[in-house]
Write a structure and sequence with these properties.
By secondary structure, the protein is of the alpha+beta class. The protein has 5 helices and 4 strands. Strand 2 and strand 3 form a beta hairpin. It starts with 11 loop residues before the first helix and ends with a helix.
Amino acid sequence: MKVVAKYEMDSAKKILAKRNLEQGGAVQRYIDSEVIRQCEPYVPFDEGALTRSASLATRIGSGLVVYATPYAHYLYYGVVYGPNIPMTIGGEQTFRSPAGQAKHPTNRKLTYNKEKHPLAGSYWFERMKADHKKDILNGAKRIAGVK
C-alpha cells in the first residue's frame, strides 16, 4: 500500500505578514516608537534637540533608532572628549578645542543636568531597556497576536 501525503504551507513572507512581523511592519513600528518614547526620560535634556532628533531622524519601522546631533555620541558614552582649552566668551566660562585638532576621550566622566529628565545619563538605551524591555516585548506580542 502506497500513501502519498502533500503538505502545503504559506511562504515565510506570508506567515510573517499575518503576524505583522514583516520588515517595517506594525510590530517593528511599535518597537521603534516605544524605544523612542521610553528612552526620553533617560536622554540628557538641555534645550531638547537631542530628544527631538530621535523622532526626526528615525525612520519608524526600520529597526534603527537614530539620535542625530553632533554631540549625541559624546553624551551617550558619558566621557569628556578633548583637548579642551578654557575660555571666557560673553562673560561665561566655556571650553573649546583648537581648530583642526582631533578630539579623543579624556577619561573624565560627563555630568548631566537632571532637572528636566531625572534619569538622564550615559547609555540611555541600555538603562531604558533594563527597566522597560518586558513592557515593549509584551506590546509587540500583543500586536503579533501572541498569547
